[in-house]
Amino acid sequence: MDFGPSDEPVALKILIAGGFGVGKTTLVGSISEIRPLRTEEVLSDRGIGIDDVEGVESKTTTTVAMDFGRITIREGLVVYLFGTPGQERFWFMWDELSYGALGAVVLADTRRLTDCFPSIDYFEQRGTPFIVAVNCFDGADRYEAEEVRVALDLDLDVPVLLCDVRRRTSAKTVLVTLVEHSLKVLTASQP
Amino acid sequence: MTRWMDEEAGPIVRPYALIGGRTRSSGDTLDLVALVTATGAFPSNGFVPSPEQERILSLVTEATSVADVASELDLPLGVVRVLLGDLKDHKLISIGRASASERILKEVINGLRAL
Questions:
Q1: What pTM does this model have?
Q2: Based on the structure, what is the number of domains in chain A?
């Protein structure tokens, strides 16, 4: 599946998903240079009561800051990390984000495991390769990766690992695990 | 280019004023990591690039992702897509999107490990 000459620039996209406050921004910051990126979205009905638009009824869009990080592997080969919005009302951004993505890291917090169900459902349905990284928060009970796999009802081929996204080495392991998984999926899909 | 900046509110000109209030263009479907490169062609048919489009053209002399363009210009993605759509329609930029090959992924894995 090689395209073009080897010096053709390549940009790859990795998504960082998971519930609100699970450490997505911290993960992106541990491993890459965070850059500002704003997007603007139509205010849906779901924003009513959250975004107070009374008196500014013509305002139908809102600006959302996204987590966006860049890792330069070499000249002409860059990996971009995009944090998916944590709030449910930004779901409609996901299709665009996940299009053509190399894969996704679903961050999980064992104290609020159900928060990552929507992300897992989404990537399973779309066929986007993903791994589950359990962010070990201070003070949270420790679980083995396999216990989390069972609790999340994950297929055996979905990698699950424990991590501490504040640590660069741990964040690195998470990304390497994902790209290795994506490579495996890619290789398996080739005749 | 210097712009009027308000520390809290950002640029004084509202983003959509930069694109004549439009929200739709041929740039709508541009992926965040699609790579934009200036073609070096001259504007034709009376098209005059806006100051923001001139900034884009000077930025993308080498392949630059859509997300990086938006980040560098500090403009919302939707606005940047419209600006890029115009430039593309007038053949001032080309858009590329290479897929990941096995070889590239292996290179990424090694590169990440070496970070």
A1: 0.83
A2: 1
